[in-house]
Specification:
seven-stranded antiparallel β-sheet, alpha+beta, 434 Repressor (Amino-terminal Domain), Endonuclease - Pi-scei, Chain A, domain 1, six-stranded antiparallel β-sheet, 6 domains
Amino acid sequence: MSKDTLVQLADGRITPISKVKKGDNVLSFNLKTNKLESAQLEVACHASPEFLYQIRTSFGYLKCTGEHRMFVMSDGRIIEKKVKNLNKKNILIIPRAIEIKEQKMHFESIFIKRYFKATEEANLLIKNRLKELQLTKSSCSSLVGISIGYVDHIRRNDRNFREDQLQKLLPALSIGFKEPYFIPQNTIHGKFINLPKESSPELMQIIGYLLGDGTVKKRTIRFKDLDKDLLFVYKDLISEVFGIQGRIVSMKDTRAWLLEANSFYLCQWLKKNIISRKEDFLSEIGKLPRDEIAAFLRGIFDAEGYVGLKGQQICFAITDERIAKMVQMFLLRFNILAFLYQEKRKEKNWNDRYVLHISNVYSFKNFAKKIGFSSKKKLERSNILLKRKSSLKYEKLKKSNILLQPILEIKKIKSEEKFLFDLEVDHPDSNFIANGFISHNSRWATHGTPTNINAHPHTDCSGGIALVHNGIIENFNEIKEELIRKGHKFKSETDTETVVHLIEEYYRGDLEKAVLKALKYLKGSFALGVISSNEPDKLVGARRESPLVVGVGRGENFIASDVPAILRYTKKVIYLDDGEVVSLRKDKVKILDSAGKVKRKKIDTIKWTVSSAQKSGFPHFMLKEIHEQPRVLKQIISSRLKGACGISLDGINLSDKEIKNISNIIVLACGTAYHAGCVGKYLIEKFANIPVTVDLSSEFRYRSPIVNGNTVVIAISQSGETADTLAAVKEAKKKGARILSICNVVGSSLVRISDGVLYTYAGPEIGVASTKAYTAQLAILYLLAFYIAEKRGSLRKRVKRFLIKEFRELPRILDVILKKKNEIQKLAKKHSHFGSFLYLGRNLNFPTALEGALKLKEISYIPAEGYAAGEMKHGPIALIDEYRAVVCIAPDSFTYDKMVSNIQEICARKGKVIIVATEGDTEIKHFTKDVIYIPKIDELFSPVSSVLPLQLLAYYIAVKRGCDVDQPRNLAKSVTVE
């Protein structure tokens, strides 16, 4: 199903299917009892086929594959039917009696300056207690943690006092914070407003109105409406809920009126609890008590609803598709059926509107009774319409828990989705609610439902050939139809079974030949494993655009989609290329190309262990991989450094003469690897005196780079399968460049087209956001820069010895930083609500700023930008205010003073600063308490020590915000498409 399909969860939340997580429960419809029940689920994501189907009813629409099943009503019975077989005669089913365990929503508080006046009685009581306890101003100040001056003011009672200061003092004096003693005061320094800690009907009505037609500024919330009386209703509600007196003014050159409520603290509270987490907030409304959901609906209908007397319907129109769909599903809780359609806007730059309309009598009466309007004008119009409809036949819905919706249109459309999402529901009737409709259990497989019949392996007609398959066969329908005409009998609905029957068609006693012939007719991406009872000691595998690896053992051989699956049996592997076929016997491996010719291939040895591919007790792979970085560096040191200053770069495949003749270096990489390359540029130019350009692989092919026979291209990729980098490398090779790759995966596509390779040996990196691979890439780039500089005679031995000595300190330094993770977690919690981040660094740590920003945006979905700090005055400084967090990388270095100047500029503009600084730096703490201290090391190596706290900061912020850290939305570990 498409990623924006809304799923009804059992706890009341309504969530896009792309955000449903393992551990969530859905509501599943019991076909025997006609009731909804909670059911556990599993989630899967796979590549979208070229075409999808779009089903449209009056209620709404749904996008999914043709193989997906829906429940339809047929002859009074509910049956399953494939989407591709649906037509306009079919009737879909909507559940309407949705019951959940209600719970209030709780909100995070913010600090508010509230002031109180102490009465004479209170002042006398304070003085007496101080005397009884023999507390001087100084000793009282030390005891409670407020300044001596403030204690003196409280004793003299010569001003209003801040709530937080009184809350420190009074408990120490055993004095209650009671109204007879302390009277709330509204002053220019702080208003005595109320910010709710939990939801209420009144609050939810205001929020509904706000999301429909309100705006939140820095210090003001505003509502614009033609109906002045309606604004007075919300003015009174705001006063009741927040204790703020709004004002209503006319707007010039328009018939509209404006309601303003001014409060800096209210705006902050709204941004923190609602605006910055709008999607999650909307989802959680479904968990609220019914009266609070009804109030929210009333508010949003007050803003965007209207009564059409001519069309005899209540309507609601908004440009936000998700809000429209969620409002529609919330209305079902009240037995109100609203129909949805998309209104295309002809005006240029105008967004389409999503319109709900309520027209049947029963739903109309339920709306009037359970939701209603606050607007007198809309209420009068709805009453007129209600009288008209009452004279019509009263079409009360039958006492059933379902509604029926005929299909108006079903069409095949070109997919715009990169990925589709599946749910596997653990329920006897295998269903869930998708966009309001009862949808059959989605499948882990790409074709066919998850039944024993559809499960692998699949066999041919005789049962003599069996096959397992990973991937998609795009043209299986055409092949299947042809095979059926030839007499083949199919047992399942899968694309996989089509392949085994096709192999049967060509099998003449030689399985390899039959597989090779079948491959010529298959379209798609797939990996296959095939056996035949006629050749029981043989296993044949094949791949096309889907990974397949051969495991070479002793008296046994294996095929698998990925290395971890066979690590417990062997560490020797062969990587198959596209179009290749492998024939295995227990003591023999034969590899054929697509023409059937035998190929000789290199056997690689994997240095991972089975446990290294598991979480090892960490909650996420990303956190495990962050903690593995000291070990990765130790491994690089032990394998790459010899003695006091010897460097071993086996695999570089460049002679001393070739290194001396290098004219220029081009670094090609994407994402995190690109940032490593940027650090490499500084290092190589500094020590080897070679001009270096760093290109994003995706852009390299679209310029005219200066490349000749003395150009070395350094290609960096963790997986070695990055499509953009592979394409850029091929382009560079055409121009005559030498290719040196830095890669983590032995035998990958990048390695195979390179002239030389430096392996990082970081072990498997499972988390999508790269951490240990980045550190390993940096380490290799340091050693490469020193190695090239030494060969070119530009690095003195004494300097090299010092650099190697410092390099050996890096694992210890990272261990020290990891021990500070609890401090970093507290900082993350404190700053997790900010809506955007800016990262600043200079020189070697400008790439660190880019990497820190990338980590945060990848896994927390918070907009984050990395900038060279010197560029701040050329644009980014305009963004700095108290709502943006700024992370400054300021270790001890020759650019330190300039970074301090940047930090002062940020503080002057009330920016919230987090600083990465060197231990022993006493100056930096004057600007903020939020400092992450890292151990001292030569500034050259600060990119390695500075990036670790940024990885932890991003991780803990994402965890606090409830994000999927290991598998962020829309991202993949290996980007194998351009």
